[in-house]
Structure formats: C-alpha cells, structure tokens
Amino acid sequence: MKFFVDTADLNDIRDLAATGLLDGVTTNPSLVAKSGHSNFVDLIKEICAIVPGPVSAEVAATDFEPMLAEGQYLAKIARNVAVKVPLTPAGLKVCKTLSDQGTMVNVTLCFSAAQAILAAKAGATFVSPFVGRLDDIGENGMQLIADICQIYQSYSYFRTEVLVASVRNPIHVVEAAKMGAHVATIPPNVIRQLFAHPLTDKGLAQFVVDWQKTGQKILPEGSGKG
Length: 226
Ligand code: E4P
Prior knowledge:
Blueprint: E1 2-6, H1 10-17, E2 24-26, H2 29-35, H3 40-50, E3 55-58, H4 64-75, E4 81-86, H5 89-100, E5 104-110, H6 113-121, E6 126-129, H7 131-136, H8 141-154, E7 161-164, H9 170-179, E8 183-186, H10 188-195, H11 198-214
Parallel strand pairs: 1-2, 1-8, 2-3, 3-4, 4-5, 5-6, 6-7, 7-8
Helix pairs in contact: 1-3, 4-5, 6-8, 8-9
Bound molecules: erythose-4-phosphate (E4P).
C-alpha cells in the first residue's frame, strides 16, 4: 500500500520524506491556504523536488477550457505532478483529455461508487473517495472504499488506483489496507500516530535499562560511535 502525505506544509513533507516511507503528496486549495505559501506553482515545484512520487496539484477553475489550461500548465511544473480535478462533468472531461496526453490525473471529491466508475472510465490515475467527510454526515466512508475496490477488481481494464482521502485516524488506514486500496493520503499527525504503540515505548525503555546493566557496547572502542 502506498502512503501519500495530505499536506502542503514543506516542513512536514521534508520530515516525513526522510523516513523513506512516503510515496507521494496530495495538496488541495484549503491545504495550500493553510500553508501560508503565496506562490502555488513554486510550492508544487519545491514539493516535487522533495518527493519523487506523485504530487497532486489541484486546478482552481471549474469550467472545462480554463480547467484544462490550468491542468496543462500544472503538468509542466515537474514530471511527477498529478493534476487534481473535481468529480464534475467538466473535471472528468479534463481528466480524459489530460490522461490521453500522458498526464497523471487525480479525480477528487468522490463520494459515491457511481462517481468512482466514471473516474475510471475517464482514465483517472487516481480516484479520491473522501471517507472522513462521509463519516461526518453519518454515512459509512469505509463502505464506499470497499464498494469501489470490489467494482474495480471486477474490471481488469480499469487502471485507476483507489486513493483513500479525508483520512482522520489510523483505523481508516488499516481498514483501507485490508480492503486492498492502493493508496491512502494521510495527514502528517495521523502518519505519526501509525508509528505509536504504548507497548513499543514501554518495551524499548526496558531494553535500554537492561542493556545498560550488561555494561557492553555493540561498536568496538574507537569506532567513533556508541
Ligand atoms: C486529499 O486529496 C483531500 O483533499 C483531503 O484528504 C481532504 O481531507 P479533509 O476532508 O480532511 O479536508
């Protein structure tokens, strides 16, 4: 399963990229606004230089022609840009055009299995179903992921990857992995939560204490470390 980080914060992206566990980045207009960065194109350029995997950059226009122009412009920033378009008729038309031109496309704001079928038919590289926002209105976000995974598995010619978005907690990530979703885009704080378990902390503290009791060092004297 691939992990993308869902942020436009360069410090978080650098920090998490250093773990070697990051496969890509997703941004959206709200995350860009939150980052406080004043030049979107420069921001995307910088992110693409930090993370070699797909970096989603979202169009701002909502009509076909200007959306296509923005998408083509964003695609030229770096070879790892995935142009993000909304799941609307215009967005899917742009998706089809850009996909046919060899550009990666992430179709965002997907809230139903029917929409996910359309995204796959439009040649999307990724479809982004928003699980957290569905949970927020009393629907079952993870059921949507299960439905989309099941449908996509029935049609081998659907190349679209299921990119689980609007992730709010580690359970979303684990459930998505059990369902076979290709990617989860995860906020930085939730990625950090994935590492954590109180028994890991407790066990490590005990190992450190017990190791000190042995009075040994693993590295030979004079090796400069340890
Ligand atoms: C990512 O591609 C989406 O824009 C993002 O996951 C939405 O998350 P939110 O519902 O927490 O804003």
